[in-house]
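Task card 7
Instruction: Convert sequence to structure tokens.
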Amino acid sequence: MGYVVAVKPSARRLNAAAGEWVNRKGPRRPFESKAAAREWARSVSDDGRVWVRDANPNDPAPVDGYLVGRARTPARRRSDPPGEQAELTAGE
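Output:
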């Protein structure tokens, strides 16, 4: 069973590899699996600004997921450990 990814405009704007793929082959890319699609996204996105997101269950598009992008990297990713907390003291 395969996993088809549609490359969204946000990913094309932020990532040269995604844009080149769309220019050469079109906006959809088939992979052998979801893991392979995510690995490709990681390999072309050294800064974490593009990633594969599953399509919503009621999405009518003939794809399994989307390569999407974000213009700026978030301050902290969910996978990062939380920072240390400091005690608040009155009068400082």
